[in-house]
Design a protein that fits this description.
Helices cover about 35% and strands about 20% of the residues. The radius of gyration is 22 Å and the shape is globular. Strand 9, helix 9 and strand 10 form a beta-alpha-beta unit. With about 450 residues, the protein is of the alpha/beta class. The chain has 13 helices and 19 strands.
Length: about 450
């Protein structure tokens, strides 16, 4: 029940005391906790089959007794339902959209680029009307856990709860740049793209398609590594059919895992951000980057509703928390960094992971390239002025696994962090300030950008 909250903040288990208030319903539905949209079974009241403005507020059905708080829902289940998109399994619309997407990707190789963009615009013509996940960044998981931590702070005699800060050296947030290499032309542009990234002191990962798209030589892979960039396996052949059937997926997963070992790749991303989290146990990778925070503009709608990494079994998920370059340029017809900057601000308010997908194919032309360079310059300024940690996916994976194994220990000398990598970790304190959760890094004496729970309004 409490593990989702304890693992998210890496706070002492004894500081979190939540329990179920009663038997849960058989049916699942939508409800809210404050401003967080939730999905799952509920105790003592009806939930909704759709997201609307009159969702039941679970915070009103929560009560305290003998030092514990009693929730009308299972916290672990609610978090899992959002992170793994289990709320989408009951949506007829999403099932139809999935079928249409598969037909499109079957015909995609023979459809001209201009027609492909037009068809995608038709397919996505009402995306702005989708009420959930919330566009342009959905922080339902993060908001839910923040509000529950705030409740725990108020119930704590010391009126504060220590936890292990999210990022090393007290970084305010984290950002990663990733490049999906989908065509031979895109592969040829990589030296130039690496020069652009290096010009701003940013290293990225390159998602490499192992079969059918272009030649992947040992010399090519060595060149990427020698320049300090990371290699991630990008599907098998990028035909959009990886998850067409369980049998086919298992056959392809065996090949994908083999390429991962051959390329020395720790991470994976599926083509088109297709995913089926219940099948991830067949993938032998340390981390995945296939799940968007909000999937309104992707062929497979949904979204994990969090801006933080999280585990799916043994795989660490690094969610995609910003709009892809293709969608920005060719669907939204936006050749500015305005939307990207807005998403960056929203993610940083939660101290989360800012994750980008920029394709070599779509930043070759001067106009698109200029937008990308403006984005990199903006990230560089945030790194300088606000302590943003810009790194590579595998470094995030290493850190998050270390943090997950760390623990706070209290003795006569105070509180310290134990575990591998603890020299980079920082203790923070959660307190209440003006009715909101405030976080202060130990020794800094200053709050760490107080959370704005209603920033989307």
């Amino acid at each position: 029940m409490n593990d989702a909250l304890v693992q998210y903040y890496r706070c002492p288990e004894e500081s979190i005391q939540y329990a179920l208030r009663g038997a849960l319903s058989d049916a699942k539905g939508y409800f809210r906790f404050g401003d967080a949209i939730c999905y799952g079974r509920y105790s003592g009241a009806a939930t909704s089959s759709v997201v609307n403005d009159s969702l039941r507020d679970a915070s009103q059905d929560t009560f305290n007794r003998n030092g514990a708080s009693y929730l009308p829902f299972d916290l672990a289940e609610a978090v899992l339902n959002l992170r793994c998109e289990l709320y989408t399994t009951t949506s007829p619309r999403m099932q139809v959209e999935s079928a249409l997407s598969r037909i499109y990707y079957l015909l995609r190789p023979v459809i001209p680029f201009a027609l492909r963009s037009y068809l995608k615009q038709l397919y996505l013509n009402d995306w702005e009307k989708l009420p959930f996940p919330r566009w342009p960044v959905d922080c339902s998981v993060d908001s839910l856990l923040e509000q529950l931590l705030l409740n725990s702070v108020n119930a704590n005699p010391a009126r504060q709860i220590p936890f292990i800060w999210f990022w090393p050296e007290g970084a305010s947030s984290c950002a990663i740049m990733t490049h999906d290499v989908e065509t031979k032309l895109g592969q040829q542009f990589l030296p130039t793209l690496m020069d652009i990234d290096d010009g701003f002191g940013i290293k990225a990962s390159f998602q490499i398609v192992p079969e059918s798209r272009y030649k992947v030589s040992s010399e090519f892979l060595a060149y990427l590594c020698e320049r300090g960039f990371e290699i991630v396996i990008h599907d098998l052949n990028h035909d959009g059919h990886l998850y067409r059937s369980r049998e086919q997926f298992l056959q392809r997963a065996e090949k994908i895992n083999s390429y991962g070992r051959q390329y020395g790749a720790e991470g994976f991303r599926a083509a088109v951000l297709y995913r089926n989290q219940s099948w991830y146990d067949a993938l032998q990778f340390s981390y995945d980057m296939s799940i968007p925070n909000v999937g309104h503009l992707d062929p497979q709608h949904g979204g994990c509703c969090t801006v933080m990494p999280y585990f799916i079994g043994n795989i660490l998920e690094l969610p995609v928390t910003t709009v892809q370059d293709y969608m920005l340029f060719y669907i939204l017809d936006d050749y500015s960094t305005t939307l990207w900057e807005r998403q960056i601000d929203l993610v940083m308010q939660r101290h989360g992971l800012i994750s980008f997908i920029v394709h070599p194919d779509y930043v070759m032309k001067p106009r698109e390239r200029s937008v990308y360079e403006t984005l990199l310059a903006h990230l560089s300024r945030i790194r300088r002025d606000k302590g943003l940690w810009i790194t590579t996916p595998n470094e995030v994976n290493r850190w998050w696994r270390q943090r997950a194994a760390m623990r706070l220990v209290e003795d006569g000398n105070g509180i310290r962090i134990e575990g591998a990598g603890s020299e980079r970790a920082r203790i923070a304190y959660a307190t209440e300030k003006l009715g909101q959760l405030s976080m202060t890094l130990s020794g800094s004496g200053q709050p760490v950008s107080p959370l704005e729970l209603n920033s989307r309004k």
